[in-house]
Amino acid sequence: MGKSTKGTVEGYRGLPVSFHLRKAVEGSRKLAILLPGLGYTAEAPVLHYARKSFLLRSFDVLEINYRYDSEAYSGFSQTEIVEAVQFDAKAVIDEVLSSNSYEDYHLIGKSLGTIAAASELKRADFKFAKAIWLTPLLHREDVYFAVATCHHTSLLFMGDKDPYYHEGRFTQLQHNPNITFHLIPGVGHSLEYPDQLSGSIEVLGNVIKEIDAF
């Protein structure tokens, strides 16, 4: 394992945003970027094991640890939170890429993080990046359009009990040949069953197995 770096950048409206760059090996040319959800942090199950998967494959892993559920953001509107996640993700990635050079990129967005992924995948450096969409916010036009038109090789995971799942939209998205879709019956926004512990663990294992092979 190489050295890890923790840092902070000035984010949206001057508020600090922390990040953690974990080095798999010295000189890795591969970077996975974790874009968490609002309350689903980089330590939550899917992102925790996704991080392990990438580190074991000699990817450096960048975790962007914005915390929009903290007191500092309590007065923010939904529009401001969207602006913040786009601004903050860009600021952290700019900071990390200013002093590190990579050739192979994977972006992993969960929920709110899919808004940042949709924005960041337009970056020239990420022209050939791969993407993993975890419970994307398909009710939002920007996220829906980004997935529908995505030219990046991608995985997408969603449960049919997710409040942001829309059958019609999901069906339309499946026309995109660049994305492998995984619709999981009975699971919600956390990619878990509400009352099946062993079933939820099985879902987690299946998701990580797909990510591990990606």
Automatic annotation (TrEMBL):
<keyword id="KW-0378">Hydrolase</keyword>
<dbReference type="GO" id="GO:0016787">
    <property type="term" value="F:hydrolase activity"/>
</dbReference>
<dbReference type="InterPro" id="IPR029058">
    <property type="entry name" value="AB_hydrolase_fold"/>
</dbReference>
<protein>
    <submittedName>
        <fullName>Alpha/beta hydrolase</fullName>
    </submittedName>
</protein>
<dbReference type="InterPro" id="IPR017018">
    <property type="entry name" value="UCP033634"/>
</dbReference>
